[in-house]
Design a protein that fits this description.
heterodimer, A: mainly alpha, 2 domains, 7 helices, about 70% helix, elongated, B: mainly alpha, Arc Repressor Mutant, subunit A, 3 strands
Chain lengths: ~200, ~120
């Protein structure tokens, strides 16, 4: 079947949405290869359809059998990003996989919030350790009503904010930050591995 | 667990084996794999979701993929089984047969007990 301009626009529109969706999760070269393969599938199906009196009907049937572009993109993301994150444990694939789960499932959304909180606390504590030598009065352990609540830095320090601690805060904040980051990362990897197992089972 | 969920899990669990079996006789491109699966099984519900699985099997080293141009008006991506994939397929086939035989024996035993009870 030779497509009319309308038919070509429909195919290109499908591929455009697919590409845009895949770009959210996957690296450029993987996206290009995936879109090329899906286009090959579509062109093959269209060519095999022969001369059809109703192009639109045939084309919509082909696209329906292939699946909505968002669903296809989601399947790519699930296979690719989560596998890569679990296998390598690298930061960027982990973030991609967590983002994927956060936008696809309710449980994933709340898990992502928890993990992001962990990462922020870890990075924040390390930042306090880095800032402390340059601004000793602005970084330290924050006390509320005499109780330590965490590492903090403020510019300028607001009245009523109780920041304490000498340079000994640096190794403490570093150790705490790294420990929180490692624990959060491991928890994230375990969650993704559990999610993947559940999906495959 | 609903019947549909059980069917879906069964389908997902057997899709890797079905794909490896499909390319075991020689290289095939994506649509040819889908058509082969559709001819023998009802494992393909949404065609587009087969491609990510092919990608994963390729990343795992079970399949080898390469683009072929000039064979058709559009390029085709062919998949073939790697030596690692052949070994995995042999293992999966053996396990599948053993599993299916055990379940079949269980079904037969349940039916015999049912007949005896009535």
């Amino acid at each position: 079947m030779q497509l009319t301009d309308t038919g070509e626009s429909r195919v290109n529109g499908y591929l455009f949405v697919l590409e845009r969706s895949l770009k959210t999760f996957l690296p450029g070269d993987v996206v290009r290869d995936a879109v090329r393969e899906i286009e090959s599938h579509l062109r093959e199906r269209i060519a095999a359809a022969g001369a059809a009196p109703n192009e639109r009907e045939v084309l919509e049937k082909i696209l329906a059998e292939l699946g909505p572009p968002l669903r296809v993109a989601q399947a790519y993301s699930a296979e690719r990003t989560i596998d890569e994150a679990v296998a390598t444990g690298r930061f960027v694939p982990m973030i991609r996989a967590i983002w994927h789960l956060a936008v696809s499932t309710v449980a994933g959304f709340f898990a992502a919030i928890g993990l992001m909180f962990g990462y922020l606390v870890g990075v924040g504590s390390i930042a306090v350790a880095v800032i402390k030598p340059f601004f000793p009065e602005n970084a330290g352990i924050q006390f509320v009503h005499g109780v330590p609540v965490g590492f903090a830095a403020q510019f300028p320090v607001k009245p009523g904010i109780d920041l304490r601690g000498g340079y000994w805060v640096i190794p403490l904040a570093l150790a705490f930050g790294l420990a929180v980051l490692v624990a959060t990362h491991r928890a994230g990897r375990r969650y993704l591995a559990w999610w993947r197992e559940r999906r495959l089972s | 667990m609903s019947h549909e969920t059980w069917q879906e899990q069964l389908r997902r669990g057997s899709l890797d084996l079905a794909i490896l079996l499909t390319v075991s006789s020689g290289p095939r491109y994506g649509l040819a794999i889908i058509q082969h699966l559709e001819a023998f099984t009802d494992l393909v519900v949404t065609e587009g979701t087969i491609y990510p699985i092919l990608g994963r099997l390729t990343r795992e080293g079970l399949l080898d993929a390469r683009w072929v141009e000039g064979e058709a008006p559009h390029p085709r991506k062919y998949y073939r089984l790697t030596p690692l994939g052949a070994k995995r397929l042999e293992h999966m086939t053996r396990e599948w047969r053993a599993f299916a035989e055990k379940i079949a024996r269980l079904i037969d035993a349940a039916r015999r007990d049912d007949h005896a009870a009535h």
